[in-house]
């Protein structure tokens, strides 16, 4: 897994966009007390369920790999 340029910023942006997507879809309501790790896991699983990103093999699912997948997803959503 090759780290992306500005991956931390992309993950923050992916969480913000993903939270809006999940709430608009009616799939979840996030609280201010929810940790970023919880949000990352929920958003990863929601995007996999909606077939917006490809799932990782179950033995490779971890926080860093889910964050990486979200960063890739958001980087592809942006118009250059």
Task: Describe the protein.
By secondary structure, this protein is mainly α. It has one domain: Four Helix Bundle (Hemerythrin (Met), subunit A) (Up-down Bundle), CATH 1.20.120.1930. Helices cover 60% and strands 0% of the residues. The two termini are 23 Å apart.
CATH topology: Four Helix Bundle (Hemerythrin (Met), subunit A)
Radius of gyration, Cα only, in angstroms? 12 Å
* Secondary-structure-derived class: mainly alpha
Enumerate how many helices there are, as a single number: 3
Helix content: 55-70%
Q: At the fourth CATH level, what is the homologous superfamily?
A: Uncharacterised protein PF16691 family
Q: Main sheet, how many strands, which sense, barrel?
A: none
**Low-pLDDT residue intervals, each spanning 5 or more residues:** none
Terminal CA distance: 23 Å
Number of domains: 1
Q: Assign an overall shape.
A: globular
What CATH first level would be assigned? Mainly Alpha
Organism: Aestuariirhabdus litorea
InterPro entries: DUF5062, DUF5062_sf
Protein name: DUF5062 family protein
Pfam family, one: DUF5062
Summarize the helices and strands and which ones pair or pack:
Elements: H1 7-25, H2 36-49, H3 63-77
Short description:
InterPro entries: DUF5062, DUF5062_sf. The protein has 80 residues and is mostly helical.
Entry keywords:
Four Helix Bundle (Hemerythrin (Met), subunit A); DUF5062_sf; globular; 80 residues; 3 helices; mainly alpha; DUF5062 family protein; single chain
């Amino acid at each position: 897994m090759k780290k992306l340029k500005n991956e931390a910023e992309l993950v923050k942006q992916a969480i913000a966009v993903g939270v809006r997507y999940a709430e608009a879809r009616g799939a979840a309501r996030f609280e201010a007390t929810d940790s970023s790790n919880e949000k990352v896991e929920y958003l990863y699983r929601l995007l996999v369920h909606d077939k917006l990103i490809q799932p990782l093999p179950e033995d490779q699912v971890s926080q860093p790999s889910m964050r990486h997948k979200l960063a890739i997803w958001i980087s592809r959503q942006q118009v250059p």
